[in-house]
Amino acid sequence: MGTLLRSESMSLCQLFLQSEAAYNCVSELGELGLTQFRDLNPDVNAFQRKFVNEVRRCDEMERKLRYLEKEIKRDGIPMLDIGDNPEAPQPREMIDLEATFEKLENELKEVNTNAEALKKTYLELSELRHILKKTQQFFDE
């Protein structure tokens, strides 16, 4: 497999794909790591493109994954290393992944909130116990 270095020979190609096959073709090309894409519509605003909603969904899922990864690393839980370039999921799998990430993020936020509440309660109760011990010593004297 080659690299995309300046000295390496390259070919400029233009692909015409059917809408139904575009995702699979682009994901296969991306997984090979030998392709660069050129924007043929540079004057079009990013928010006017057809795929902007899919990109936003992917960005949101990436944010959730980074949050989950940060929490996993913070707790010292070992993670399975699958390499740098995992295979792109199929569009129908994206919906399931999105729902799973949303569920995991909500559960983790709830666990963190409960852990903070427990720490706060523990500290308050420890403080009260310490006060009771000191007052008991005072009254014993």
UniProtKB/TrEMBL annotation:
GO terms for molecular function: ATPase binding; proton-transporting ATPase activity, rotational mechanism. Signal peptide: none annotated. Keywords: Coiled coil, Hydrogen ion transport, Ion transport, Membrane, Transmembrane, Transmembrane helix, Transport. GO terms for biological process: vacuolar acidification. It is found in: Membrane. It is a multi-pass membrane protein. Pfam families: V_ATPase_I. Residues 51-128 form a coiled coil. One of its GO terms (cellular component) is vacuolar proton-transporting V-type ATPase complex. InterPro entries: V-ATPase_116kDa_su. Essential component of the vacuolar proton pump (V-ATPase), a multimeric enzyme that catalyzes the translocation of protons across the membranes. Required for assembly and activity of the V-ATPase. Belongs to the V-ATPase 116 kDa subunit family. This is V-type proton ATPase subunit a. The lineage of its organism: Eukaryota, Metazoa, Ecdysozoa, Arthropoda, Chelicerata.
